[in-house]
Structure prediction request, 327 residues.
Amino acid sequence: MSRPFPILIVALDEPKRALALGGVLARLLQEVPNAAVTLVTRSDSAALFADFSHIEEILAFDGPVISPAGLKLWWRLRQKNWGLLLDTGPTLWSRFLSAKTRAIAPDHYARNLHLPEHPVVMASRLLRLEKPELPWLHVAEARGAGAAAFLEDTAGEEGPLLAIAPGARWQGAQWPAERFSVLATRLMNEDGPLKGARLLILGNETDREAATALRMAAPKARVVELTGKLDPLTAYACLRQASVFIGNDDIWLHLAAAANVLSFGLYGPSDERVEAPLGNNVHILRTPRHFEEIRAQDPNLDQALCHMLDLSVNRVYEAVQTTLSAS
Prediction:
C-alpha cells in the first residue's frame, strides 16, 4: 500500500468562490489515489465539502490570518511536510509552510495588474491542468435521500421542477421579488414553456420576504418552499432534480450551475467575468448597463438602491423560452 500523499488546500473564500474548487478537488483525488487532503476554509464554506470522503480533515477558520487563532493554526499546519500546497488567497501562511510542490495564487496587487481571472480558471492554471475543471460537489447517499424527502411535498404532482432563489446578498443586486413572481407565473401558465411545473423556492432565512411574494405564483400543492431550511450542500442535492433555475448573483446560482441545471443568472452590480459561475448550462442576463457603469454610480457597491430595475421581466422570460425551445 502506497504512503499517503499529503495535500493542503487553503481557500479562505466565501461559499460561491470556494465552490469553484469542487471540480479541481475531485480531479486531484482522481489523479492522486493516495491523496490525504486537508482543507482550510471559512466555516460557511466548509459544509460544501462535507461529503468528500477522501478529505482527511476540514479545518474551518474565520477571522484574520494574523491573529492568535491564525498563529495557532499556522503552527499546527507547519508540523507536516506537505506534498502539495494550494493557496487561493494567497495567505501569509503559505510563505512559511514546507511543501514539495507549491501552487500559490498571485497577491492582490499582482491581480490588479492583469485582467480579472475566474477562480475556477485560476485554480486549474495553478495546478497546470490542461483545461479548467468545472465545479461539482460530492453528495453522500444519505444526503441525497434527505433531499428527495424535502421534495416529497409535491407527492402525486408531476411536471418539470422550476427552481428560483429570489434573494441576494444585498439590496442592490436583488431583482425585485414581484418580478420573480410574475416571471414564474408566465413560465408555468398554460401557454408557458414550463406548463404544469412545480415551483421550488430556495434561499437563506433573510430571503423569506422575497419568497413570500414568489409563493403566490403557483397553487400551494405545486410549491416546495425551502427558504431557510437547507444547508447549501443539501440544496445542491435538491437542485440536481430541477429542470430550470433562475436567481440573482448568489450561492444558489453557483450551486445550480455545479449541479448542471439549466441556469439563468441575473446580473447588474457584479462583474460576471469573475463572479458568474462556469458551467455548460449557464446563461447570464445582465442589465443594459455594464458593471463599470454601475460601479461609477456606486463606487463601493453599498448604496441603498436597486441596480436591477432596468432588467425587464420580458427579457428574462424570452431568454428562458428561447433556450428551452432550442433544447
